[in-house]
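#lab-general

N.A. 3:47 PM
ok so I finally got the sequence cleaned up, no stray characters, all 214 residues accounted for. can someone with queue access submit it? mine expired

B.Y. 3:52 PM
send it over

N.A. 3:53 PM
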Amino acid sequence: MSIVALIDYGSGNLRSAEKALARAAEEHSTGHEIVVTADPALAASAERIVLPGVGAFADCMAGLKALPGMVEALREAVLGRGVPFLGICVGMQLLAEVGREFGDHPGLGWINGDVVKMTPADPALKIPHMGWNELSFPRPHALFAGLDPGAHVYFVHSYIIRPADPGQVLATADYGGAFAAAVGRDNIVGTQFHPEKSQAAGLALLGNFLRWTP
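B.Y. 4:20 PM
back already:
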């Protein structure tokens, strides 16, 4: 059975992500086993990797680095062997070179760009951005196969990623201005929204990820 490693580094809604991935695997008959793990050896050998994340950028990065060998294992698997990777919320933001929340903090650097505070054009819009919002797709991607433009997904965030290469923006949403709702390159994808909380659209996306062959 192929293993999906759901990385447990003390930051993330692991239970709901685990349940949603397991349901997607069952509904799409992919045969994956979802394993919550803090073990770099298991992460290194997994067929797919999911990195969740909730909280501040620096805290999440520190939590990941606190697992001996985990960052190196992820780098070897994802960058070295091309293992399909999904980052969720702050797990996606950690892909950037730097996060600018409470100072500047280095990220994994797998996506060129930075993470900055949301500044909606309409000052009446509250931060954090919380709730359902529509997706737009600048270009087709396997992650969103079968999802219509305008599909609703669930967000909870105050910061957004700004990829240096606009071609790495896979989906956008609008909250007083357009922002990157999903980014990716090669075998790496990330969503600012929470697929595990996005009902049918989220399960469809997770099913696409489990079947994705970059």
